[in-house]
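Posting this for the archive.
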Amino acid sequence: MESTRQKKISRLLQKEAAEMFQQELRELTCGAMISITIARVSSDLSVVKFYLSIFPTAKTDEVMQAISANIVKVRYMLGKRIGKQLRIVPEPTFFIDDSLDYLENIDNLLK
């Protein structure tokens, strides 16, 4: 169960990270469209898990490798954006959110 503070911080991190990928970290997206569907913060606010939806799905591995290789840069840029609101910048981890692919698969099976 997330506390109110965790929910507020996760919303802030989700918004800032999404803007960061659209504006400042375009070279990591490899021409794909990235949207952050969920941001979950740990109870001690030291780790944030971002769930990414990547379109087109063919570039998923390429984008995830680029992000993983530049995780220090991503955390630094995130820290520059939220440095005034949070004392400690959480360590970001990225995961693929494949819920839309799952829904599309079920829809195709039902047709």
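The domain at 4-110 is CATH 3.30.300.20 (GMP Synthetase; Chain A, domain 3). The chain has one domain: 4-110.
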